[in-house]
Design a protein that fits this description.
319 residues, alpha/beta, Ribosomal Protein L15, Chain: K, domain 2, 4-stranded mixed beta sheet, flat
């Protein structure tokens, strides 16, 4: 076990020696040894002893608290940070260099669009009936990649965001066709998510974002200062940067969950226009996410270490 998901009403968590003790309605239900954990994810009104927070911090165990009504994070404990401050100094200097930021952002956008291409190509092999919308989306993405790869074209952060936006419109134009009409998925909509697919994407992106924040801390970078996403109060812009290439990976997982009918319409309900996943659906989603997230977490750390090395400028990197 590396992640513990606690998503149950009337649950409290106490410290019991070197373990977390779980109580439901004041009845002890079991314990989880701390040495097995890398992160704890809470949803809803789970009560924690203050000693639990101290124990998690001391052992570098991350904590993510999700809202009980939606899929947004309300609190995060990202565990320890790498102690080499030179990485953050280099990061701050890079932020002031528009040319360096643009070079990194160009790389980021290209990786993301190529991942979108891979998903649509794979979808085309199993959904020949969707050849027209998928091929059209792929042609648009090919054209955008061709423009971004031309050395003669000067790009800026603003124009890169324009390319990414055009790619996203084409990509979701094909991606939406992969889901049954009963799911009513017509495009990416965030707040509130109106349908089951958007509800899953929002939850998945929130979990992925936390993994990106944690990766930033592990490698000693400031998660608030990105190179592609601008500064925004309260936003972990670098974490947003790092997770961008992995969004299509999350999209693929959501497609797989519905394609294999692990998630179905009956796992969702409507709450005044907000689609909510029920407890059974969330249990399925958490289990699937944990079964798939290992490579993505390692990739986030590799991205972080590569950036730390780039920010330091001398090609040397600690561990």
């Amino acid at each position: 076990m590396s992640s513990l998901y606690l998503d149950r009403k009337n649950l409290s968590v106490k410290l019991d020696g070197q373990a977390l003790a779980l109580y439901e309605d004041n009845v002890k239900k079991g314990t989880v040894p701390l040495h097995l954990l890398e992160r704890v994810v809470l949803r809803g009104n789970v009560q924690l002893e203050s000693r639990v927070l101290g124990a998690l911090t001391e052992r570098h165990i991350g904590l993510l608290v999700l809202s009980g009504r939606n899929t947004e994070a309300t609190a995060m404990l990202a565990a320890h940070s790498h102690s080499d401050t030179r990485r953050r100094l280099g990061q701050y200097q890079t932020y002031q260099d528009e040319a360096l930021r643009t070079s990194l952002a160009r790389w980021l956008v290209l990786i993301k669009i190529r991942a979108q291409q891979r998903l649509l190509r794979d979808a085309l092999t199993v959904r020949a009936d969707l050849r027209y919308p998928l091929t059209g989306a792929l042609q648009t993405l090919n054209g955008i990649i061709g423009q971004l790869r031309e050395d003669t074209i000067e790009v800026s952060l603003s124009s890169l965001r324009g390319f990414e936006g055009s790619a996203a419109a084409a990509y979701f134009g094909g991606f939406t066709h992969l889901f049954a009409d009963s799911l009513q998925f017509t495009g990416r909509k965030k707040r509130p998510p109106p349908d089951p697919v958007n509800a899953c994407l929002s939850l998945g992106y929130t979990l992925l974002h936390y993994d990106a924040v944690r990766a930033c801390h592990l490698v000693g970078l400031d998660s608030m200062l990105g190179f592609y996403h601008d500064l925004s109060f309260g936003r972990e812009s670098l974490a947003c940067d790092l997770m961008e290439p992995l969004r299509p990976v999350m999209d693929r997982w959501v497609w797989q969950l519905f394609k294999e009918r692990q998630l179905r319409v009956e796992h969702f309900s409507d709450d005044n226009g907000r689609c909510q996943m029920n407890k059974t659906g969330r249990q399925c989603f958490y289990a699937f996410y944990e079964s798939q997230a290992g490579p993505s977490r390692r990739l986030l750390r590799r991205y972080g270490y590569a950036l730390g090395k780039r920010f330091m400028g001398d090609g040397k990197q600690g561990s």
